[in-house]
Amino acid sequence: DSGVTQTPKHLITATGQRVTLRCSPRSGDLSVYWYQQSLDQGLQFLIQYYNGEERAKGNILERFSAQQFPDLHSELNLSSLELGDSALYFCASSPQGVSYEQYFGPGTRLTVT
Amino acid sequence: AQSVAQPEDQVNVAEGNPLTVKCTYSVSGNPYLFWYVQYPNRGLQFLLKYITGDNLVKGSYGFEAEFNKSQTSFHLKKPSALVSDSALYFCAVRDIVPDSWGKLQFGAGTQVVVTP
Question: Hey, is the C-beta of B40 within 8 angstroms of any chain A C-beta?
Fold first, then answer.
């Protein structure tokens, strides 16, 4: 158990809908990262937050957005969903500093039908 | 731009034999390198990292990795593979230039199959 929690574990929704994925980082970690894992794209970095502020953006679509709240949990919002958004979405957390490893949550499997 | 390559989609090895999973990287500065393992329907688990210092890094579950700067490689090794090592292995690199801000660039992953 990494100490990072994600909810829900599974999510099935229809095209055009909006969903919210939730992540709680390890105790004490200020940085939260979101990644998308799909068969065709592999593991892709989406976005990073540090102590409530956005720090880095990766291959995140404009239909996707995220935020980190004062209690450090984070939410990833996916809207106008398309079939191609079906993937595993991982949250990771780490202490601040590039030498630290990231600890990953169990992921949310999103299926868009 | 940073990148990492795992040239093998799959590695097959018999239980008890040495296991090697290859990784090469490209960064603009000095690399921070990581190995993660993913079991079916699970998140990624951290195995080991190279930040600085000794080129041979020891990690969890008997794994180690050798950093080779001249060959820009960071191969994962285990002297004696177990059936339970069968999983998907990812190499990742983090560039330490300021604008990278900690994001990891992952390789495509290598499926390891250990047969009894």
Answer: no
